[in-house]
Model the fold of this input.
Amino acid sequence: MAGEVLIVAEQIHGVIAKVTLELLGEGRKLADKLGSPLSCFILGHNMDSQIQRVIEAGADKIYIADHPELAEYKTLPYRRVILDELDTWKTPPHTLLMGSTTTGRDLAPRIAAYFQTGLTADTIELDIGPYEHKAGTDKSKIGYFPECLYANRPSFGESLKARILGPWKDPQMATIRPGVFQLPAKVEKDQASVEIKKIAVNLKEEDFRVKIAKILREESTKVDISEADVIVAGGFGLGSQEGFKLLEELASCFNNAVVGASRKAVDVGWISYPYQVGQTGKTVRPKLYIACGISGALQHRVGMQKSDCIIAINKDPDAPIFSFATHGIVGDIYQVIPEMIKQVKALNRQTVSV
Amino acid sequence: MSSNFNNKDLNIYVLIKQVPDTRSKAGVNADGTIDRAKAGKMLNPFDAFAMEAALNAKAMGGPNSRITAVTMGPPPAVDILYQALGHGIDNTCILSDRKLAASDTLATAYALSMTLKYLFKRDGNPDLVFCGLQTTDGDTAQVGPEICERLDLTQVTYVEDFKIENNIVHARKVIEGGAMEVEAQLPALLTVANSYKKLKFKTLRGAKFVQEVKRSEKLQKEFLEVVDLAQVGADDAQCGLAGSPTIVSMTWKIGTVGGNCKMHQGKSALELVSEVLSAESNLVKEFLKV
Ligand SMILES: Cc1cc2nc3c(=O)[nH]c(=O)nc-3n(C[C@H](O)[C@H](O)[C@H](O)COP(=O)(O)OP(=O)(O)OC[C@H]3O[C@@H](n4cnc5c(N)ncnc54)[C@H](O)[C@@H]3O)c2cc1C
Ligand SMILES: Nc1ncnc2c1ncn2[C@@H]1O[C@H](COP(=O)(O)O)[C@@H](O)[C@H]1O
Done:
C-alpha cells in the first residue's frame, strides 16, 4: 500500500496557516485516491488548540511536536524534528507537501535533499495518476508506476504548464502556491477517531546556529482584501502616501471595493501590511483589479493574476505588468486616476438616471 | 577574543547562473515558450543581487578577503564569469560537463556542492556562500537550501540586508507577513532577495581587466578555472538525467489572464480612460455604487 499523504503544517503565532488548511483539503483527495491516510505534522509550542482545526480540515493522523524552541519557525530545529521522526518510519510518506511560502521554500528542499528525492516548486495543481517510463538513457528508471504524484506548475514565464513527477522514490514532494486551492468544507469527525501522536524533540547544539533577534510582523487586522470584488492597488509609482487617498476615492465609487498595495508601497510605509498583495501578502481574485504604478514583478503577479479583469496604469510602456493585464493604460497615475474617478462618477449618475 | 576579529579575512563564494534572456524577443516563440538555442543569454537577474551581497561582504572582511564566483553550465556560460570579474569578483570557476545535461535541482545542488567542496579543499574553508533567491528559468529557490543540506552550512534564505560582526551574520530576511532579524553563525549560505541593493556598475578598471583576460590565455588560466565532474570528484550517477529524481512528463499551454494585453496609449487621459471604461462597461456597472 502507498504511504501516507503528509502535510507539514505552517503556523504563525500558534495559528495554523491558511495554506496548510488548503493543502489538507487537496491532500484529502490525493489520500482517497491512494487509499492512504492523510497526515499532518504540527510543530510549535502550545498548539493543542489547533488540533481541532486540522481535524476539521480532514486529517486522519496528527503528529505533534511541542517545544518552546519550535514556537517560531527556524530551519534547523524544524528540520531535525521532522527528519528524526520520518527516519523511524518503515514506509516513507508517499507524498509530502508544504506551502510555497518563505517557510516551505526554506524547509522542503532540506527534507528533499536529505532523502535525495524530487521536489516540485510552486505547484498549482496536484493529482495522482499512472506513468510509464518507456525508454531513455537510464534503464534503471524504466517501469510502470500506477500511482505517481502529478505536480503541475507554470514554467517559462507562466505561459506553459509542466507536469513534473518522480515516482522512483518516496516521499514525492511538492511545495504549493498559497491561495490556489479552496479551503476544505468542515469535516465532521470526532477527535477519538483521529490518531494523535506526539513527536519526540531532541535538538542538538548545532541546531541553534541561527538565533532570532527580532520579528517585525504586523497583525493582519480586520481588512480582508481577499474577499473584495474590486481592488484598486497602488505601488511604488504612487510616489507618496497621499496617492492612496486618490485610490481610496476611486475604490469608494464601487461596491465591495478596497485598496491594495505592492510590497514596495508597504515597505516604505505608505500603507500597512494587511493590504499587501502577492507572494508574501495575500492572494486575491477580484472581478476587477486596477493596478496603479505597479511594475508587475513576479512576486506581485502571483498574488493577483487570477483576477477576472486587470486594468494597469503605468507610465513605462515596457512595464512587465502590461504582459499580463487585460487593459494597459500608458500614462501618469496622477492624470489617469482623477479622470477615471470623474468618468466613473459620471457613469454612476447615468446608471441612476436610467 | 581578539579585537580585530571583525577584520578576519573572509573566504566568500557566490553561485551564479546563465539563463535565457526573456527581455528580448529573440528566441521567444509566438506561444511564449523559449527556444533555448535561439534565445539570448544573460546573468540570472537574482544573482546580480547575490553578487552585490558578496562584494559588500568582502568589504566587511579583512584586507585579504576574496570572492570566487562559481557557475555550472555549458562552456559559453563563461560570459557571466567575465561579467563577475568586471564587477570585482576575484576568481571564477565553471563546472562544465556533458553528463550534467537535464539536471533537476537535486542533481544541480549535488554537482555544485562537489565543486564547492573541491574549492574549499584547495582554497580553505568557506565563510560565506551567496546564492540568488531563485533563477528565472528553474524558478525553484531550491538549489541554495539543497546545497546547505549537503555541506552543512548555516542557512539563511530571503536575505534583504545583512552585516557581519564577530563571526556572526546579522541578517534581515523576508517572512510571511513581514521580516525577521536573525543572527547566524559562519560558515553560512545566504540566498539574497531582490529587495537587496542593486548591483553597482562595473568600474572602468574592471572593464579593462576583463578585456585583458579575454586576450590572455595565461590570465584565463589564473582567473577562469574550468573543471569537469571527474576533477571535482563527483559521482556521475548522481548528476544530470541519471541523478535527477524528477522528470517533466508533459507540458501544455496555459491561457494566463490577459496574455494579450490591450494597450491604450498616446492619447489624452480623458480618451484613454473612456476607451477602457467603455470596453469594460458591463463589469464596471455591475459594481458601481449607486
Ligand atoms: C521574497 C520576496 C517576496 C516578495 N513578495 C512580494 C509581495 O507579496 N507583493 C509584492 O507586491 N511584491 C513582493 N515582492 C517585491 C517584488 O519583487 C517587487 O519589488 C515589488 O512588487 C515592486 O513593487 P512596485 O511595482 O510597487 O514598485 P516598482 O517595481 O518600483 O514599480 C513602480 C512602477 O511605477 C511606475 N510609475 C512610476 N511613477 C509613475 C506615475 N507617476 N504614473 C504611472 N506609473 C508610474 C514605474 O514605471 C514602475 O513600473 C517580494 C520580493 C521578494 C524578494
Ligand atoms: N547552474 C547553476 N550554477 C550556479 N548557480 C546556480 C545554478 N543553478 C542554481 N544556482 C544558484 O541557486 C539559486 C537558486 O536557483 P533555483 O533553485 O534554480 O531557483 C540561483 O540564484 C543560483 O545562485
Notes: Residues A 235-237, 262-265, 276-281, 293-295, 297, 299-300, 303, 313-316, 319, 332-334; B 133, 158, 174, 193-195 surround flavin-adenine dinucleotide (ligand 1) (CB under 6 Å). The first strand of chain A starts at residue 5 and ends at 8. The mean pLDDT of chain A is 92.
